[in-house]
Task: structure prediction
Amino acid sequence: MHVMRKIFFLFCLLSSGNLFAQDVQKLITDILFKQSALENISADVHRIDTFTTGDIWDHTGRIQVKLVPADTVLGYYFKGKRDDHKGWSLYSNGIAFDINDSSKTYVTNSRPNDHILGSPGGQMMFTDLFKLDTSKAISFKMDEEPGYYKLRMDYADNDKYQVKERYKIFWIDKQLMLPVKLYDHLVVLNNKQARTVSLANLRVNNQVNQPYDFNDRSFLSSYQPAPPPGKPAYLSLINEEAPQFDLQSFAGERFALNDLKGKVVLLDFWEVWCGPCVEAMPLVDSLSEKYKKQGLLVLGIMNDKSQLQPAKLMAQKNNYSIPLLVGNESLQRNYKINAVPQYVVIGKNGKVVHAQAGYSDKLGKVIEAALKE
Result:
């Protein structure tokens, strides 16, 4: 029934009375029909990501998948292995594991969501292979080359995050009628970002040699739970004098911590290529608007100078009210910035009263308390 609803949606979207639209519609219908019959999958995977910074992430691995429509988390079970990693990732029956073969340890996640696809093994997953997602495409194009159909999906620009030229191209194996390669392209803040996923040695259903037993938990008896991670380094800043800094904003204005005594200062460490950072920026900006008359100063600080121009473009487009500063390696080291976004609240006396990774509503409560002191 789910497949039929998809086919009806695509019919409405594609029908334009010409042969080309009918060809595209038939291709997608055939892919969805083929995918509806999938039960087991195995494949070797090669994934290459080109980031807006120009950095390239190039990895290989392999996956095994069992389609489980009744599963409420993903709708499938998977075992993923990234070749440069010493372990593998497993999800089945509502529980996710990251297994380290070198240390003979594992980490259990008993309340997983689709974020487990960010695990090393999860990064090898190519979900369009068995669940082609056409839901947000605004147009479709079809082409051919020897052995493959090429299906292109274009997407609307996102003015809020300045994303444009977003499209995906799928290579559909003519014999299998399944996607075996993906090129995913977009331009954000005038910088290109792309992802290529290619499959080899693809096997489906009864072609899969020794399908993985997703009910097998034998590793639990021979491996040990991994020790809990230590406290994040940035927590050691709390109750200590905030490290000094003297920085310039995008507009050339100077900000030195020594000059800010008597104010509550919120430092927002961010980068333009960090999605959660950009997403939280309007929330941080609203904190500044709400509390600045009570003595709060919010400073956004980025350290990746190679992305200064895109960052300035984003700031100009969104018209943030908070000063945005350019940091340096010393600041990054002193404030123990190992990931972004990271937030540090400095009290009126110049001491750090709070530090956290990732935005949450707790920041507002911490700021209110600090302003009352």
About this structure: Residues 2-225 form a domain with the outer membrane lipoprotein receptor (LolB), chain A fold (CATH 2.50.20.10).
